[in-house]
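Practice problem: predict the structure.
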Amino acid sequence: MSVSVALLGGIIIAVATSLNLLVTGKVTGWSGILGGILTLDRKTLRSNVCLAAGLLLASLYDLQYRDGRSFEDPRRFSEGLSVTGFALAGFCVGLGTRLGNGCTSGHGVCGLPRLSVRSLVAVLTFMLFGILTATLKSHSHFLSDPAPHAVLRISWLSSDQFAYFLLFCFAICVLSNLKMVLDSVISLLTGFVFGIGLQLSGMTSRHTVLAFLTLDPKTWDSSLMFVMAGAVIFNFFSFSSILARPAPLIKSASFGCKSSPKTVTASLVVGSSLFGIGWGLSGICPGPALANLALGHSAMLLAFFPTLIAGNLLGYLWQQSFGPTKSKSK
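Answer:
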């Protein structure tokens, strides 16, 4: 991938997150979005469902009009990782991002531009563990034998049927609170534009991510470094301008990130470490995981995503039972 395309992908992702912050006052962190859906958080459920619907519609758009060129086919997707490996990676990503209150989008794309110390620590931690895990795995080949059913594509709905279902969910969200129509529309648009950015940047291809995380001079792919640079630099200026405003464009909303926790905790470090391990094993983080659901890969539907959900919910239960505060995921 060329540097210019990587930068453009990062900037598109940044535009989506800046739009969401400007209008709704919310940080676009996919681990928090997924977590809010799983726990049926009443305050964020409507907007989170719209965000997820927009991201999946972007995947369906690529399938329908670009023959899925931004994604890997089932055989390539499952190559190099067993079903057990997908399951373990999904659990680490789900639990880690819940305990660490964020992932590459929440801490990286949205946290670093705000000069958040917590996000800087989180990014350095999951990058370190991601690089170590991916590099060690490339040399030892553990968890690398895919089971036969891992290369199948499950056609549960056609692309058109899935798109209609997502639009139906969006309509329900709009009708559930007509006073927040703008919020719902912006959330859907944010998810869609973010999804296009993921596709263009190569983050929907897990082997592109693994090529970045694996320290091998023969195969190292630096493109994702420029994706993150494009997103962070753009958001540094846009977030500074947006957060200088007294309130988001939706007057009833507020900038939630202004009151987010600022201390570095053991949960943040442990969670980010676990996320890095899962990311290094699979090359998949929450946003691309959700985007890849539309492809119907059995390794995603039957192994990675179910354990991601389990890990996220286990982390939620841990926070509710033992956490000092009920912190919000980014």
